[in-house]
Amino acid sequence: MAHPVLSAGERWVQQGRHWVDTYDLVRISVGRRGRRRRVLHFEDGSGRRIRAYPYKEARSANPNMWKLVLAGIMDSAASGRCDPSTEAVRLLDIPRELVINEDSVRRADREFVSTGLVVIALGLFVVFLGIDSSRMLWTAGGAATVVVFGFLTYRVIRR
Question: pTM for the whole thing?
Answer without folding.
Answer: 0.65
